[in-house]
Amino acid sequence: MYGALWRVLPGPWWLRVLMLLVLAAAVLTALVLWVFPWVDQFVTPQDVTVEEP
Amino acid sequence: MSIEQEPTLRTRKRAPRVSVIGVLGELFITTGVIALLFLGWQVWLGNLIEGNTQTTEALQLSQSWRDDKAEMVTVPAGREDPGPPVVGVAPANAVQFANLIVPRFGADYVRPIAEGVGTRDVLRVGVGHYPGTAMPGDVGNAAFAAHRTGLGSPFFDIDKLVVGDSIYVETEAGWYRYLVRGLEYVRPTGVGVLNPVPQYPDAQPTDRLLTLTSCNPIYTADERIILYAVYDTWYPRAEGAPEEIAALMTGAG
Predict the structure, then answer these.
(1) All domains of chain B in start order, with CATH
(2) Is B41 on the interface with A (CB under 8 A)?
């Protein structure tokens, strides 16, 4: 999968590394800004209240 | 490449460029890394962002109670007794009606308080006021809940409070000052801490108390950590903000 990605990218090795870094940064940004907040609403947070049994 | 031109090696089977097992393995590793990133986001980056959002909302709330942009007066320490505090009426569920200000949690610490302790509608966005408990400043026990880790961590440092620390509750009427009395640890079913006189279901309240509840031990929820504070005084809004938190409050406008 990642090997194939490496092979389809054009250019010399340093350009490919650069493109992969940009791609990784874009993925990370998308995760932090949209994916994680969206997933978080389905995660049950810890209880902090006292309640009748 | 020269080595592939050798007749003896030409017939050697080349490994497929993409194998099912290989892709599956890479997917698993990727999923694991993303799950770890999510955990890090929950306790650190997302937590910071949500905490900042709560502070911004609280300061907006505070500003909305100021009728004009006039410079806020700071109440001097040796002032006259303002008399018994004005007590508000509890609003509808999930409506923000107060701010919690705890100098021990940091000079910029202020978080909004909404009515109710709903997991989704209230506790995700700040501090919750237990319905049916006293309102801030009233005789009895005003009880609040909030998260200790994640979702902005309003009560992250609850165990760092020491006896005599100030806790302020800001409402439209002004600022109520409570002084920390002590901590208690109970089971999640220990509702006695919400009684008008905590742990005494039948006692008639004479004191004005404030109770905070959160989860304990930190990062888990086996127990509840309870903080008690006792009413000290109040500062009517017209007279200005208390000196201890004046910088935070005037920075709001």
Answers:
(1) 47-251 (2.40.260.10)
(2) yes
